[in-house]
Amino acid sequence: MARAAAALWLLFGLAACVLAAPQNVTSQHALQSMSLDDLDLQLQTCSIVQELSAIKHAHHAEAPSSLTTRLFAVLFPGSPAVNALLATLYISGPPNFLLALCPTNIDPSSLSVMVAFAVGGLLGDTLFHLLPEIFLGEDESGRARFVLVEPNRNLVLGLAILVGFMTFVAMDKGLRIATGGGGGHDHSHAHAHVHSHADSKAVVSGSHVGSDEVKSRRKGKGKREVVEKEKDQHKEVNPSVKLGGYLNLIADFTHNITDGLAMSASFYASPTIGATTTVAVFFHEIPHEVGDFALLIQSGFSKRAAMASQFVTALGALMGTLIGIAVQELGGGNANGEASMPRNAGLWKTSLTWGDMLLPFTAGTFLYVGTVAVIPELLETGPNKSQELRKTLIQFSAVAVGAGIMLYISWHD
């Protein structure tokens, strides 16, 4: 009964504030032309809203700052643009330097646990941070905040999510067509396919070499010469496999551009969203970069050339970040992800700007990478049931840990 009475009191109080707010506006036309920020300022003058803000501010003032909050404050101390550039360095630098420690004969399928962990992080960041931020906005510790329901605005945001999702569908489909069936993000399957394809070509070429070797023996050539010739033949890589490696570099460069867009869009939404997106992308980049590194090695690249190529593709993330910053600065959005223009003067007569489209686009790409592009890899099974059951439990645990980290950060920040 006490909660019902409090809720009823709050409802009547807000209704009184809303009815009283238009008295401060000169005309109905002026009310319609107000931006969301202006409407929020009008609501903040209401006594009951001020009371709620005071209670909320006192609660947050008493609660000690969490470890993640202090860590994020150290890692991202600047403006949204500066923090986005710092995040791009964090997600691009360390994963590429780790490639120096990777052996050239690494099997991408051995990364399944790390891939599962990355899936949990990406989906956790999307579901716990990006989607709530997109439709409701970021919570504020110092005051009560109200959301203006604008149906067409939500439809446009949902459309941007769909566009992001389908953009990655088109990219993946185009890469599969170009490589003859190999996928762009499904590392273990695509790499195993390329590897077996290269091996079969090597065996075929080796069979032809064998007939030459018999002839050379008949001509009196030594056994050592035959072995050296056979090694040289096995070092050759099928041209189609090399082409697949170069196409994968192009896909990786494009993928990194979307990561850069995610960095800029997230930090312009809020520092917390930017930090959690950085963590999610970082954990995804490690198995992603190692898988691409293994594919380049199998495509005939030397270890040094493969590492150099990965550093070049990392420039795509920097390019995407700079593009995202330009869109945010010039597209009419602000650091809170809301428009400062009249709420019906944006895209398709909504309050949205082009800068507001980057975050839902990012959410769509994350949904694709975390589900369609990666989960099929986790669904692959072998003939040994007990081994596959143990492997599945480990993978599900890794997904839970990745999502749990995102949930912890969201809960305490």
Automatic annotation (TrEMBL):
Entry's Gene Ontology cellular component terms: membrane
Keyword Signal recorded: yes
GO MF terms held by the record: zinc ion transmembrane transporter activity
InterPro entries: ZIP (IPR003689)
Signal peptide: 1-20
Protein name as it appears in the record: Imidazoleglycerol-phosphate dehydratase
Species this protein is from: Metarhizium rileyi (strain RCEF 4871) (Nomuraea rileyi)
The keyword Signal appears for this protein: yes
A biological process from GO: intracellular zinc ion homeostasis
Membrane topology: Multi-pass membrane protein
Region annotation Disordered: where it falls in the sequence: 207-234
Residue intervals passing through the bilayer: 71-91, 111-131, 151-171, 305-327, 357-380, 392-411
Keyword vocabulary terms for this entry: Membrane, Signal, Transmembrane, Transmembrane helix
Chief location bin: membrane
Localization terms from the record: Membrane
Basic and acidic residues biased stretches: 223-234
Pfam families in the record: Zip
PANTHER family hit by this protein: ZINC TRANSPORTER SLC39A7 HISTIDINE-RICH MEMBRANE PROTEIN KE4, ZINC TRANSPORTER ZIP13
